[in-house]
Amino acid sequence: MAEPVSLLFRIETRLRVMSSSSSQKQSSSLSTPAALWRLAPFVRPVVWRFVGGAASALAAAVIALMIPLVLEQIVQGPIRTGSVGLIILGAVAVLLLGFGEALMVWLRRWFILKPSTEVEYRMRTQLYARLQTLPVAFHDRWQSGQLLSRMMQDIGLIRRWLAFGLILLVVNLLTIIIGAVLLFRWHWLLGTIFIVTAIPLWITGYRFEKRYGRLARQSQDQAGDLATSVEESVHGIRVLKAFGRGKHALTRFSTQAESLRTTELSKARAVGSIWFWLDLMPQVAFGLSLMSGIWLISQGAIELPELFAFFAMATVLRWPIESIGFLFSFMLDARTASDRVFDIFSETNSITDPEQPVRLEAPRGELVFENAHFRYQDAGAAERDLLDGIDLVLRPGETMALVGLTGSGKTTLTTLPTRLYDVTGGRVTLDGVDVRDMTLVELRRHIAMAFEDATLFSASVRENVLLGRAELDIHSEEGERVLREALDVAQANFVDALPEGVETVIGEEGLSLSGGQRQRLALARAVAANPRVLVLDDPLSALDVDTEALVEEALRRVLADTTAMIVAHRPSTVALADRVALLERGRITAVGTHSELLRTSAHYRHVISSLEAEEAARTGAIPIITDEDLEARVEVTADEHRTTEKEVQA
C-alpha cells in the first residue's frame, strides 16, 4: 500500500506545483531579433534554400506591384483610344504577370519546405541529445510535460515560422516600403496620407509586442503544465482509480485547462485589438485618398488613370498591411518558443567528461568512498549534508550489503559511483582513479546499476536486456549467449512464454508485466552489462520467496568475481553479502560481517529486527535465523545480561 500512496502523493504534489520556477522561466532579456538570431546555427546549413525562398516571395510581390502600373498604361492608352488589339495585349500582359506571381509563390514553397523540416529535425535531435547529457539533477527540477511541449510543440512552431512567418514578414514589409514609395509617384499628397495613416499601426504594434509576448510565454508554459498533468494522470491511472480520485484529478485538470483558456482569450483579445486598427486604418486611408484624389483631379494635378492606378496599388498593398498583425504575433510566438527551447540548451551541465580522461585498461573493481559528502541542490543552508562524510572500501570481488533505516541515504549513495550525481565533497574512486577523471561512457561500462523501481522501454525484451552492451550485435550468437545467461541469472525465463518470446515488444514502461517480472528484467539488464562493479538498489523487493531464493543462488555465482554494493531492505539480501555497511544519518557507523555487527552494534540489531518484521508482515512467514545468527544473538543477550547484573550490584 505504501507505493500507491506515495505515487498518489507525488501526482498531487506535481499538480500543485505546476508553476514551478524551473518550467516558468521568464522570456530572455534579449531583443526579439537577437533572441531569434540564436536559431542561426540550425539554419546556416540550408540558408541558401531560405534565401531562394525569400527571393521567390519578393519576386512574387514585385510582380504584384507591377500589375497596377500596367493597368495604368492600359487605361491611359488603349481604353481611352478604344484600340481593341492593344486592350487584348494588355490583358494578356496582366495574365502573364499573374501567372508569374503564382509561379514565384510555388517556387517559394519548393525552396522552403525541405530545409524547414531539416531545421526542425536538427533542433529536435540536438535537444534530445541535450536532454540525455544533462544530469539527473536537471530532470529532478523539470516537469516531463514541459520538456515534451518544448520538444514537440515549440520546435514545430519554430519550423512553421521559419517556413512561412519569417519569409512573409520580411517580404511584406519590403512590399509595403516599395509600394509606399510608388504611391508618391502619382502625387506627394496621396503618399503622405498613406504614411500618416500608418503611424497608429506602428504605435499599436509596439504596445502589442509588450503585451502579447508576455501572454504567449504564459500560454506556452501553461500548455506544458497541462501536458505534464495528462502524462502523470495516465501513468498513475491505476492509483487514481484504486483510490477513487478520478474526479479529484479532473477538478485539478479543469482548473489548469481553464487557466490556459483564460490566457488564450487574453491573447485573442490582444490580437483582436491590433486587427481592429489593421482593418480601420486602411479604410480611413482609402476614404481620405479618394476625397483627396477627386480634389486633385478637379485641380488638374493628376488624371483619372493615375488615380485608378493609385487605388489598384493600394489594393495590392492591403493584404501585406493586414497580414503584419498576424505575422507580428506569429514572430512573437516563435520568439517565445525559441526562449523555451534555449532554456534547455542554456542549462549548465555539471557532470561532463574531463579534458584529459584517465583510462582503466584492466579494472579490478575496487570501489572506495573517501570522505564523500552530498547534498541536493535545493537543500537549505542550515540542513546537514545528506551524506555526511562517507568512508567505505569495497574490495575487488567483494559483495557489500548496505543497510540502514529509511532516510539514512542508502539510495543516494548508490547514485554516486556512476555519477548520476556528483559528490559535493570528498571523492569516489574506482581502482584508485577518481570517477570524475574518467569519461562517462567508460565509467558506466565498468559500473552497472539496477534500481528498485525497474524502468523498461517500449522495445523488445532482447533490446531491453542488452541495453548496456552497445558494442555487441544483439542478434549474433554472442548476443544470444549473453542474453540467455542474464535471463537465467535473473530467473526471467518467463519471457519465452510471451507471444513472440524475447522479440516481444514490451508496453510503455513495462506496465504490461508484473512488478516482479519488470524487476527481473532490470536485474538481467544489469547482469548482461558484465560490469566490474554492480550496484543494486533492492533489486529483489517485488519477487516472491521461491523466485527470490533462485535469483539469490544465481547471483552468488555472478557476484563471485564482481564487486557489488547491494542496498538491502530484506534480511535475505543481507545473506548475499560478504560484509555489511551500516548507514546511519548519512554516515557509515559500522562495517563487518552480519554476525559481527549483531554482536557489536545495537543500531544494527534494531535495523535487522525492523527488516525481519517487515519481511514477516509481507510474507506471513517466521523469520529464518541461521545457527551463526543465533549464536551471535545468544552471545549479545549474555553480554547484555551481565551488564544488567553489574548495574544492579552497583
From TrEMBL:
Q: Which Pfam families match?
A: ABC_membrane, ABC_tran
Transmembrane region(s): 46-71, 83-107, 161-182, 188-208, 274-297, 309-332
Which superkingdom, per the lineage?
Bacteria
The residues covered by the ABC transporter domain are 367-610
What SUPFAM superfamilies is this protein classified in? Answer: ABC transporter transmembrane region, P-loop containing nucleoside triphosphate hydrolases
Tell me the membrane topology, using the record's own terms. Answer: Multi-pass membrane protein
Which CDD domains does the record associate with it? Answer: ABC_6TM_Rv0194_D1_like
**Domain ABC transmembrane type-1: from-to ranges:** 51-333
Q: What is its main location?
A: membrane
Q: Where in the cell is it found?
A: Cell membrane
Give the GO molecular function terms: ATP binding
Q: Which InterPro entries match?
A: AAA+_ATPase (IPR003593), ABC1_TM_dom (IPR011527), ABC1_TM_sf (IPR036640), ABC_transporter-like_ATP-bd (IPR003439), ABC_transporter-like_CS (IPR017871), P-loop_NTPase (IPR027417), Type_1_exporter (IPR039421)
Q: What is this protein called?
A: ATP-binding cassette subfamily B protein
Q: Which organism is it from?
A: Microbacterium murale
